[in-house]
Amino acid sequence: ETVSSSRVKEKDTCCRVMGLSKRVSFWSVEEVLDWVQEYYPAQLNTLHTAFIKHSITGRALLRMKEHHLERLGVESKEQQEILQDVLLLRVQEELENLNDIYAGEASDF
């Protein structure tokens, strides 16, 4: 088991515990803020106002890039950590999409 796969499992477990069992792309602004609070409490003050002001939902979070975080006032080190975790959320989202496709094809037989 790799570090990345254990982090995805860790995040998946966290999301269930936080009541965020739905896909990241369907997260509300409040659910995104719950994720930030859980993983980046030191950045919550910086991100809270900006995420509300710009309506950063799960779909927007998945599209987040370095320059977005820079504009929001997140320091370089934290940008990389956040972007790495966002990448893991993207991978999780893609796996769920593939599972849906496979489940749909399996039901066609």
UniProtKB/TrEMBL annotation:
A cellular component annotation (GO) from this entry? cytoplasmic side of plasma membrane
Q: Which InterPro entries match?
A: SAM (IPR001660), SAM/pointed_sf (IPR013761), SAM_domain-containing_protein (IPR052268)
PROSITE patterns from the UniProt entry = SAM_DOMAIN
Q: Where does the record place the SAM domain?
A: 27-83
**A Pfam family matched in the record:** SAM_2
**Gene3D superfamilies per UniProt:** Transcription Factor, Ets-1
Look up the record and give one Gene Ontology term from the biological process aspect.
cell surface receptor protein tyrosine kinase signaling pathway
Q: Which domain of life is it from?
A: Eukaryota
Question: Which PANTHER family does this entry report, sorted A to Z?
Answer: PROTEIN AVEUGLE, STERILE ALPHA MOTIF DOMAIN CONTAINING PROTEIN 10
- Annotated protein name in UniProt: SAM domain-containing protein
